[in-house]
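Usage

Read records sequentially. Each one opens with the input sequence:
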Amino acid sequence: MGDVRIRPATLLPPPLVYAVGLGAAWWLERRFPWGWQPPRGAHLLAWGVLAVSVLLMLWAAATIWHHRSTVNPYRGASSLVTGGPFAFSRNPIYLADALAYAAVTLLMGSAWPLCLAPLVWATMRYGVIAHEEAHLHARFGAQYQDYCARVNRWFGRRGSY
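and closes with the structure output:
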């Protein structure tokens, strides 16, 4: 796999994990319908959540690029980014992906994406995020540990509640 100080040993491309989950849910829905009628106005809410997820993703990417680091999960971080959306989430891009997954689930009107969500989450947590965290810890040491002590993995500053 290589030296985690140089780059993360990420197993799968993160967008592929969410896309496969939604693709499998779509396939299952076509063969074994398990749909439901979303409440009135749910589609509007879903499109709003999708828009927020895209904006969060763009904000996070712009923040990373501003620090001259990379959004590529197969390349090593050149700096520890803790500002912008990273001040309230250690994984704002993956948070945006999860919001998009939830929005598409609502738009699909199927229970299948909900059933597959734990598998998608576990794949992201252990197949992607764990490797990125190991890389950041190896690369930035105490600075990364301090950051982890201040900011939650998904959302929220520690000790701010």
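Summary fields computed downstream for this record:
- The CA atoms of residues 83 and 108 lie 34 Å apart.
- The chain is about 60% helix and 0% strand.
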